[in-house]
Amino acid sequence: MIRATTAALAAALLAVPALAYEPLVEKQVFEAESFTTQGGSEIAGLRLGWEAYGTLNEARDNVILITHYFSGNSHAAGRYTEDGARGYWDSIIGSGKPIDTDRFYVVSMDTPVNLGAHLPDVTTTGPATTNPATGEPWGMDFPILTIRDFVETQRMLLDSLGVEKLHAVMGASMGALQAYEWGAAYPGRVGRVIPVIGSGWADGDLIAWLNIWGAPIRLDPNWNGGDYYGGEPPLAGLAEALKIVTLHAQSAEWSNGVFGRAWADDGADPAASFDNLYRIEAVLDGAGMGRAKTSDANHFLYLAKANQLFYAGHGDSLYAGLLAIDAPVLVIHTDEDLVFPGNAVRETASIIRSDGTPVTVVELEGTRGHLDGVLGIAQAGAAIRAFLEN
Amino acid sequence: MIRATTAALAAALLAVPALAYEPLVEKQVFEAESFTTQGGSEIAGLRLGWEAYGTLNEARDNVILITHYFSGNSHAAGRYTEDGARGYWDSIIGSGKPIDTDRFYVVSMDTPVNLGAHLPDVTTTGPATTNPATGEPWGMDFPILTIRDFVETQRMLLDSLGVEKLHAVMGASMGALQAYEWGAAYPGRVGRVIPVIGSGWADGDLIAWLNIWGAPIRLDPNWNGGDYYGGEPPLAGLAEALKIVTLHAQSAEWSNGVFGRAWADDGADPAASFDNLYRIEAVLDGAGMGRAKTSDANHFLYLAKANQLFYAGHGDSLYAGLLAIDAPVLVIHTDEDLVFPGNAVRETASIIRSDGTPVTVVELEGTRGHLDGVLGIAQAGAAIRAFLEN
User: Fold this and answer.
1) pLDDT tier, A21 (very low <50, low <70, confident <90, very high otherwise)
2) Which of B144, B260, B301 is closest, CB to CB, to A271?
3) What's in the keyword line of the UniProt record (chains A, B) (predicted)?
4) Is residue A216 domain-resident?
5) Any chain B CB within 8 A of the CB of A270?
6) What is the rounded distance in angstroms from the CA atom of residue A374 to the CA atom of residue A88?
């Protein structure tokens, strides 16, 4: 007993310094006087948050760019404060981890039209921010952006850091689209591409579902055609939209395995009243409303549009951008994914591979569907580490 | 050439009488002074439409009951008028067809809270119809119904026809739930059960999606807590709800194969404006709004609730009702089904089979997902014919 206690104490003592020595992450802001979109519109006063882990080497060639998913932001790893939340891929990014910050300088940036526009740690430019020309929020007058525009904001940040070529670019879901786009748009500036749970274009099915995702926002009378700043935001519609995303990004193994037919409240039989819910309904309601408060409804619609518009390269043909990718590609996905199904991801891999580009495909196991690309990424840790070495 | 023309003419002449001799279907109305729901509420003045194909024999033992799906009604076969639309399963119901009306008397009935409450050929009782106690539409004061309540209305109709035992009961989707429920609730009154594209209970995933389906209605300010009769109905919300159902009941093979990334209007690039849609979006919008005009939003919510509440038998345990089924079961489904996935259907089949009840499973091929249970049912024609013979 004494031994066990001593061992536990020693482990605790060892653990504390390990945490204490980990440097805190500093969120920074990248500013550009002007940004011209691919569609030809100009955005004055672009401001986007970013953060980095590790140290930029003298040759500036040890950079790995992490691009974030639809509802995500730059916070991929580490913590802003001692008791703050760890970034979403903290399991693979850090000292000694597969994306080893002892070796790599890992950069991650908030996209424009970031969903979490009202989160204190997010800095973004979009409908919710002020149009310098009017002094009012842009609303739906903000230009439509594409995934390529997101890539351009990252390129500008990297240019400002003097980084010519990325060791790798990696992202999940919408982040995977940005990773493909980097490989297609800048084949000479990307050493490796790691798209996770994403395919090379938005197909008809994804376009349709993205329309469904956004519909509740447009139905909420508070949305008011996007003009709600200064009034009541369309929280109910946004919460419903986020509910759909939440369910779509999960799997039946989750909804059935964790919740099944359980009631939200014992004694409140769903058969007795429309107010009595099943637990899965209450959980989705809570998740939707919880995230709605820090999200922006117009930003949601702009992100949905950017995803619908995506095909790698945005060129003259659907496949040209994928064929333009020259860097080796490590595709990570799961067959339980409802958003980017396995066959779409495998088809993407085949097209990239068809002209001789090396492509490795790693399949994740799990019960969380699309989300396993975030929650279960550590499974691919060894493959990522090896891919980054080569 | 003359021969070919003669042959074509002969074929045309042969075709015309075949159509002309087919008896037209007469829609009838079943009325009951009172109906007590499983929840203990009383509905005065129940009125439900029904129709039949074939002739009831003297022994009254040649009856096959067809139970309809979520957005369906009693019109399973034949035509009401010479140029009217054929019923949804006309390919398998009729003279000489797998469900042979030369031999069987095929009965089909509108459910209460039928979605198509405002279709001229549908007669139903629900929130949109008048509560005799108040002289006003019931609205959300209408009692919550279950799939078992639907079965009870059918039992009352069959009782009125002097039918003691069904040769078979068959239905697709929500109709499959009714078929399971018939087998569970009245094992002595059902000779055969044919559930198509449906499983033995609503699992957590289906419960969640049914919540998502109904959300747009609740968001539409015209819904007004269900009190919209006499005012503007919540058409926009109902149309969005029907869009989700439409997409969910299809498959990616449809949305990608038929539409892909095509634009709704040539020259109206979706990248240029939020008003410019992809074709799949415009098709879903059209389908949703087209059906919304003849549907009722409250009825939609009552149907969603009935589906959420379903587990065969509605008894003390999830499996008891399925184990109560004694009649042979022919399960027809497709693995491309997003609403009732293949594993849920196969699990249902295994549970029914576990106590010795004969179960046959037939899998449909197709590119339309859940809808193949309606559109592709003819594939199972031989299996259905043989099953009905035994």
Assistant:
1) low
2) B144
3) Acyltransferase, Amino-acid biosynthesis, Cytoplasm, Signal, Transferase
4) no
5) yes
6) 7
Which of B 200-219 lie inside 8 A of A, CB atoms? 201-205, 207-209, 211-212, 215-216, 219
Contact flag B255-A211 (C-beta cutoff 8 Å): no
Domain assignment of residue A32, yes or no? yes
The CA distance from B325 to B184, in Å, is 5
Q: What is the pLDDT of residue B21?
A: 58
Kindly tell me if the per-residue pLDDT of A99 is higher than 80.
Answer: yes
Which domain range does residue A194 map to? Answer: 25-207+311-389
With a CB-CB cutoff of 8 Å, which residues 29-88 of chain B face chain A?
Answer: 39
Min Cα distance B389 → chain A (Å) is 38
Phi and psi (nearest 5°) for B266? -55, 135
Cα A370 to Cα A390: distance, rounded to the nearest angstrom: 28
Whether the CB-CB separation of A91 and A372 falls below 8 Å is answered with no
Q: How confident is the model at residue A128 (pLDDT cuts 50, 70, 90)?
A: very high
Give the pLDDT of residue A16. 44
**CA distance readout (Å), A212 to A217, A248, B9, B280:** 10, 11, 50, 11
In a domain, A223, yes or no: no
**Number of domains, chain B:** 2
Q: Cα distance from B109 to chain A (closest Cα, Å)? A: 24
Phi, psi (deg, nearest 5) at residue A129: -100, 170
Minimum-distance CB partner of A240 among B219, B247, B255 = B219
ipTM at complex level: 0.93
Q: Note whether B243 contacts A215, CB cutoff 8 Å.
A: yes
| Residue from A269, A337, A355, A372 carrying the catalytic annotation | A337
Top residue of A274, A303, A318 to mutate, by most chain B CBs within 10 Å, is: A274
pLDDT digits (tens, 9 = 90+) for A47-86: 999 999 999 999 999 999 999 999 999 999 999 999 999 9
Give percent of chain A with pLDDT exceeding 90.
94
Give yes or no: residues B198 and B344 share one domain. yes
> Does residue B378 belong to the interface with chain A, where contact is any CB pair within 8 Å?
no
pLDDT digits (tens, 9 = 90+) for A347-374: 999 999 999 999 999 999 999 999 999 9
Contact A255 B204 (CB under 8 A): yes
- Answer for the pair A127, A302: CB distance below 8 angstroms, yes or no: yes
Residue B238 and residue B379 in one domain: no
| Token pair for A198 | 């994403």
